[in-house]
Amino acid sequence: MAATRVSVPTKSNIRASTKLILNFDVPLEQSTNPEIVMAEKSGKLSQPRDYKLIVEKDVRIPLRDGTVLYADVFRPEASERFPCIMTTGPYMKDKLWIPPEDLEEPANEYMNWETANPLWWCPRGYVLVRVDSRGSGKSPGKSEPSSLQEAVDTYDCIEWVAKQGWCSGKVGTLGISYHANFQWRVAGLQPPSLKAIMPWEGRADQYRDQAYHGGIFAIGFLTQWHHMQTAHHLLGEPRSYNPDAFNNNLLWEYMRNDLDSEYWRMCSARWDRIKVPVYSVGNWGGFAMHLRGNTEAYMCAASENKKLRIHSGSHYHPFHSQEARLEQLRWFDHWLKNIDTGIMDEPRVKLEIRTGGSSKPYPFRFEDDWPIPRTQWTKFFLQPQATRPSASEVEGRLTLEAPAQSSSITYEASPGGRHSHGGRTGVSFETAPMKEDIEITGPIVLNIWISSTSRDMDIIATLRNIGPDGKDVPEVGQRGDSVPCVTKGWLRASHRKLDKEKSLPYRPYHAHDERWWLKPDEVVECQVEIWPTSMVYKKGHKLQLDVQPKDGVGTGHFTHYHADYNQAARNTIHAGGERQSYLLLPVILAKSRS
């Protein structure tokens, strides 16, 4: 594509859209993957053609309340009409994303963070529309990130797009993270022209998935994200044309609404209202924000046509891989172009099965449903050691046999005092070395009996894969980093109340609508939701469970705010006898794997 730059409009001329018509002067990207080459040559996928590309900048989209949002439109120049793939978000449609060199999709001047690439999609007969959400980028108005208002605005954008002369009347949505999250909310409003969605690594429940893990405020990511977006708008280029952008009080609102309520329901997915075809795409590494939304969507959305895919890797490499783009194209060709790509003939669930320690994608495996129907739900019981081990040893075992005798183990909630930020906290339990490869794939529960000298207690559970050398076997994290844990779960003891109608034996659903304070040394039972995972624990490896009062290994920037009642408190885990504490694991034995 010709290296044509588009100047950024100033505040005085922002109302005039800019239109460019560009020729392809380089060959269209050629795939080297034999399966993709075969798929594209089969005639069951949209074929890339040498269309001229029309780029329309700052297109005005009118909303029902008189507000105008600004969008960029990328479309093939042709007399025919094309389906559209749309995104809405606060990340600024004009902000260039420069990807890493190892991205499978070549960089170009139209790349934008967490969105599809026009130079790949438009030659295949699609229009791409990127919208700056209200109060962000070039769009005026009051900023309300991840809100019902944003969903209503997106509804209006979808219906406006569908009526344009270049659109076939069919609209789909595709994007990562924030550009996945908006899809749940707008799909619940059921815009007539929205025909399919593909939320790629997208949180869905703003309270449980993002803001309050188990009732514990996720201060680290939220603070970083909010401050960064504010800086991008007020200290970056947008200040020159929209100086009042991203003006909101989001962090205060989130902290003020620290119990679940209608405030959170209004900005979260309403599963019973989502009836459009859904391809929910998760990442095993997204256990601190996005993954739960993708698995909940598959289990709970009212759509008759839904699929689930879970991969590994960074937050963006899988989306831009050739394999993934093929999958995206098959999905939208089916629903937006009525092409029989065969994607709906395949099993509904497609999972990467992790075998530990790879920096590259693992092989996919098809399954008929989620959780996997042949799952052998297995309890691994917590058994504290009778004597306190050395600093290099764990404090307890995980055994298949329930301990007959009751026991307990106590640890400090704030070791080292108020200003201590390092060192090991809590206690750990581990299995014996595996006698054979054992696959753990699915949701997990920690059923644990606890007490504290304080009126509350934070339970942070971390599952780890320990190799024969005693070291963690790491996995690729969302930032492409090496993460020494498999998955995590959280629960503040005062939030242990369950919603019995929504809870499942393998996935507790906490109400979060009132606090059940602890009494000093009162023993209570808690069910901790540990986010789903997939890991084959190889022969000789151990599964380790850390139970901690604060964030432990593998937390990264997803840290939490631990309230003042932790200070000087002593927490106790009870196990055995009438108070069996255990991990409920989704075991798929080697002889059952396909």
The biggest sheet, with number of strands, parallel, antiparallel or mixed sense and barrel status, is: 11 strands, mixed
Instruction: Specify the structural class.
Output: alpha+beta
How many domain modules?
Answer: 2
Q: CATH first level of the largest domain: which class?
A: Alpha Beta
User: In the CATH scheme, what's the topology name of the largest domain?
Assistant: Rossmann fold
Beta percentage is: 25-35%
Number of strands: 26
Q: In which order are the strands of the major sheet placed?
A: 1-2-3-5-4-6-7-10-11-12-13
**Helical proportion, percent range:** 10-25%
Assigned CATH superfamily of the largest domain: Alpha/Beta hydrolase fold, catalytic domain
Report Rg.
25 Å
Second rung of CATH, namely the architecture of the largest domain: 3-Layer(aba) Sandwich
Shape field: globular
How many angstroms separate the termini?
45 Å
How many distinct helices? 10
Mean pLDDT: 91
If you had to describe this structure to a student in words, what would you say it looks like?
This protein is an alpha+beta fold and 594 residues long. It folds into 2 domains: 18-201 and 216-257 and 315-346, Alpha/Beta hydrolase fold, catalytic domain (Rossmann fold, 3-Layer(aba) Sandwich), CATH 3.40.50; 376-592, Galactose-binding domain-like (Jelly Rolls). The chain has 10 helices and 26 strands. The protein has helices spanning 34-41, 118-121, 148-162, 178-189, 206-211, 219-234, 250-256, 262-265, 291-300, 322-337, and strands at 18-22, 53-62, 68-76, 82-89, 127-132, 167-176, 194-200, 212-213, 216-217, 278-283, 306-311, 349-352, 364-367, 376-384, 396-399, 407-412, 427-430, 438-452, 458-466, 475-476, 482-483, 487-492, 524-537, 542-548, 570-575, 582-589. Strands 1-2-3-5-4-6-7-10-11-12-13 form an 11-stranded mixed β-sheet, sandwiched between helices. Strands 14, 15, 16, 17, 18, 19, 22, 23, 24, 25 and 26 form an 11-stranded mixed β-sheet that branches. It has a two-stranded antiparallel ribbon with strand order 8-9. Strand 4, helix 2 and strand 5 (127-132) form a beta-alpha-beta unit. The radius of gyration is 25 Å and the shape is globular. The protein starts with 17 loop residues before the first strand and ends in a 5-residue tail after the last strand. The model is unreliable at 1-15, 24-31 and 417-422 (pLDDT under 50).
